[in-house]
Amino acid sequence: MIEFRGVTKRFPDGTVAVDNLDLKVDAGKITVFVGPSGCGKTTSLRMINRMIEPSDGQILVNGNDIMQSDAADLRRGIGYVIQHAGLFPHRTIVDNIATVPLLLGWNKIKARKRATELMEIVGLAPEMAQRYPSQLSGGQQQRVGVARALAADPPVLLMDEPFSAVDPVVRESLQDELLRLQSELGKTIVFVTHDIDEAVKLGDKVAVLRVGGKLAQYDEPGVLLARPVDDFVDNFVGRDRGYRGLGFLSSDEIPLGELKTVTIGEAAPAGEEWVLVVDGERRPQGWLGAEQREGLETVSADRLVPGGSLYEIGSGSLRSALDAALSSPSGQGVAVDAQGAVAGAISADDVLRALDATRRDEQPS
Amino acid sequence: MILWDWIPRNLGTIGQQLLQHLQLSLIPVVVALVVSVPLGWLANRSPALRAVLVPAAGLLYTIPSIVLFVMLPGVLGTRIDSPLNIQIALTVYTVALLVRSVADALAAVPSMVVAAATAMGFRPGRRFVSVELPLAVPVLIAGLRVATVSNISLVSVGALIGVGGLGALLTQGFQEFFPTKIIIGVVLIVVLALLADALLLLLGRYITPWVRAGAGARSKA
Ligand SMILES: Nc1ncnc2c1ncn2[C@@H]1O[C@H](COP(=O)(O)OP(=O)(O)OP(=O)(O)O)[C@@H](O)[C@H]1O
Ligand SMILES: [Mg+2]
User: What residues does each domain of chain B span?
Assistant: First the structure.
């Protein structure tokens, strides 16, 4: 656990970058610092490993005041990942990753072996081991940065806008991978970003900072979206927060409706209404409307209207349920089970009713 | 113009002069490198020190070599024809060149990489040796090449006070109206300078494999 107690950072030129910050970062969770440029995110983060020293207040890591420990020793126990990765250009990938183990005095063979393991964990092909950072793409370099930070298995990981220099598609896959890694490793991660979408996606808790280094709100992402404390946070959280907030509400309550289906190869059904076409394993293939059925005798894979997004029961949120309904040509969202077989239909009305129910449950009594 | 058969008859002398030339010019490069790295490091660390060290070095470089060669025995108490005078004078020049090179080379190391090293838990000494210095090598080698070539030519001036390696061929050639010596001397000095320069270039490439790796990746992309 990391605890900020009344921490203030005043730079020699008088700038107050962080103002009396009180905050507890939960162990084994991802905590995101988010806020506009210059609000003190980087400064707060770098005070944790003493790259910047607080002017006032105390920072505790696992109950110990960080000012009591040797700075270099402290840093070897805290992984650090920065934008553009900050890799050593003169060292091969495997040696970059082995940096901290070598500093800790491991022998070369053991350190390299560990580095090779990590390359696999973060999804880097083994043939990259002997390359130099300049021979990797931005996304690959960022993976090396993460691997390097994890090499000595530190309990704490600091990440300063690690994914902001890569294109949106790569960024999304890096984010997904961080979440996957975290579900296996359970590190205490402090993650800095100015992107609120990244913050709510990654954070177990999100701290919104305002310029001047003051904490505006510190909450779980769902709460942040549902109940911003003031106009600043409301503005910062941005448009569509109501819709995005659905992503944090469980959809277990939604009742599934009947869905009319027909299997490929069967006779085309009579009638006008939309019918979902499935394959032999009841996996959705597309829709048949009135128009497509004209003159059709047996149902085949061509001539289908593509379906919308699928909603997987048990693992979805209200957002994915609503999206399934809205994106379906028939207005009926398709719910599937873990095997991908059709389980039933979802309507937008059902989602809104479930949302109402959640609201009632949350009413303060 | 050239008396070709003079050459084989005097190979022994020429060889000795060549060796002396190398000693006089290269030992100062090595000594100066050892002195300049800490000085350049200091200059890079503190802007105040840099403001003193770099101009001071530049000033030293403007002293004509012959003045320094003649003055040094008085200052150091060495004999007027001691090779030490030449070596110390050239060391001074080389330091003057290299302090700036080292400071510039260190300043050119990306600050983000240095910060990353600190954040990994490098202490300053080890960080300097294993991160900053290696990354400074390309700029440093460029400085070394200039210093080495300049030393190889400056040594010849020492012949005026009796210690000058191949420079002796030039002074004697003029005194004796004997062009063969002059031409041989000039050719050997030039060849020596070119060779030393090429060797340093190759050495630089060899110890900085990442530089070309990066260039290769760019052109392929
Ligand atoms: N070394 C310094 N000296 C003086 N002021 C500084 C220094 N470092 C940062 N600041 C100031 O402190 C404030 C907070 O900076 P910080 O880098 O923590 O912001 P940030 O939230 O990380 O911003 P960004 O999103 O742009 O990275 C800014 O106003 C910045 O100008
Ligand atoms: Mg920042």
Answer: 11-209
Q: Distance (Å, rounded) from C-alpha A99 to C-alpha A94?
A: 9
Specify the 3-state DSSP secondary structure of B4: coil
Q: Give the ipTM of the model, two decimals please.
A: 0.83
Three-state SS string over B193-221 comes to HHHHHHHHHHHHHHHCHHHHHHHHHHHHC
Q: Which residues of A touch B205 (CB under 8 A)?
A: none
Select the residue of B121, B135, B213 nearest A76 (Cβ to Cβ): B121
Q: Which two tokens stand for residue B209?
A: 């494999």
Tens digits of per-residue pLDDT, A64-110? 999 999 999 999 999 999 887 789 999 999 999 999 999 999 999 99
CATH assignment of B11-209, among 3.30.505.10, 3.90.1310.10, 3.30.1780.10, 1.10.3720.10: 1.10.3720.10
- Are the CB atoms for B188 and B7 separated by under 8 Å? no
Min distance A84 CA to chain B CA atoms (Å): 9
d(CA B132, CA B136): 6
- Return the structure tokens found at B40: 């350049």
Shortest-distance atom of ligand 1 to CA A35: 21
CA distance B189 to A251: 85
pLDDT digits (tens, 9 = 90+) for A273-312: 889 998 888 899 988 888 887 777 888 888 788 888 888 8
Ligand 1 atom closest to A161 (CA): 27
Whose CA is closest to atom 14 on ligand 1?
A40
Nearest CB neighbour to B123, from listed A72, A86, A87: A72
Pocket (CB within 6 angstroms of ligand 1): A 11, 13, 15, 17, 37-43, 194
Which residues in chain A touch residue B115, judged by CB atoms under 8 angstroms apart? 51, 82, 86
Which residue does chain B place closest to A51, by CA atoms?
Answer: B119
List Cβ neighbours of A174 (8 Å cut-off, separation of 6 or more).
A139, A142, A143, A162, A163, A166
